[in-house]
Amino acid sequence: MPQYNRIKLEESWKTALSAEFEQPYMQQLSNFLREEKQQGKVIYPPGGLIFNALNLTPLPKVKVVILGQDPYHGPGQAHGLSFSVPVGIKVPPSLLNMYKELQRDLNIPIAQHGCLQSWAEQGVLLLNTTLTVVQSQAGSHAKAGWQRFTDHIIDCVSAQQEHVVFMLWGAHARSKAQRIDASKHLLLSSVHPSPLSAYRGFIGNGHFSQCNKFLQRTGQTPIDWRLPELSSEQTELPL
């Protein structure tokens, strides 16, 4: 990818992915994104947040991977973390169902916002398998080359880390299971938390408690799934 050295990327990921950035498909992807912008298309998330998941969760600190598919394609929603939206943006339906399962599974009250950054900072890699999208066009960049890149990210985590929990929700995420070494990692699979399928097996799957039990069993600190409360100033934002 041209100007690779200018890309803002956390050092451990920069080392792990440096060769990948030099591959022809990544140069083609860079050209594709540039052409999309030149055509006046609005691309989400903003350029500085495309690698937000990697920048917030260095490779050596990855303990959990939650795989999403596409970034959100509405204004202000996507900020580079799967399922997450910035504070002040309405909580999307799939994330609300995740909160409902957290409440059922671990008695955690439903959060008043949708920003999952605190999870990322604890070692939860919130990775979409496609990292960009055109405004109002779901799946518009699904075949642009990102999936080869994010497959390599999954491969790096599987090979270089020990005892990681992979949460694979929905057919697309479950299709990545073959890339993961199940002899040393925990794979938790279910239907997707979207309203179309959540009550066919996502609500009730117990993945959040299973994850923490596995982390404790392997000598790791469990994830605090409770999200920070908003300040009085933030609570005035429309949710």
From TrEMBL:
The keyword Cell cycle does not apply. Its EC number is 3.2.2.27. Pfam families: UDG. Excises uracil residues from the DNA which can arise as a result of misincorporation of dUMP residues by DNA polymerase or due to deamination of cytosine. It catalyses: Hydrolyzes single-stranded DNA or mismatched double-stranded DNA and polynucleotides, releasing free uracil. The active site is at residue 70. One of its GO terms (molecular function) is uracil DNA N-glycosylase activity. GO terms for cellular component: cytoplasm. NCBIfam families: PRK05254.1-1, PRK05254.1-2, PRK05254.1-4, PRK05254.1-5, ung. PANTHER family: URACIL-DNA GLYCOSYLASE (PTHR11264:SF0). Gene3D superfamilies: Uracil-DNA glycosylase-like domain (3.40.470.10). Belongs to the uracil-DNA glycosylase (UDG) superfamily. UNG family. The keyword DNA repair applies. InterPro entries: UDG_fam1 (IPR002043), Ura-DNA_Glyclase_AS (IPR018085), Uracil-DNA_glycosylase-like (IPR005122), Uracil-DNA_glycosylase-like_sf (IPR036895). Keywords: Cytoplasm, DNA damage, DNA repair, Glycosidase, Hydrolase. HAMAP family: UDG. One of its GO terms (biological process) is base-excision repair, AP site formation via deaminated base removal. It is found in: Cytoplasm. Residues 55-215 form the Uracil-DNA glycosylase-like domain. Transmembrane segments: none annotated. This is Uracil-DNA glycosylase. The gene is ung. It comes from the Bacteria. It is an enzyme of class 3 (hydrolase). Its main location: cytoplasm.
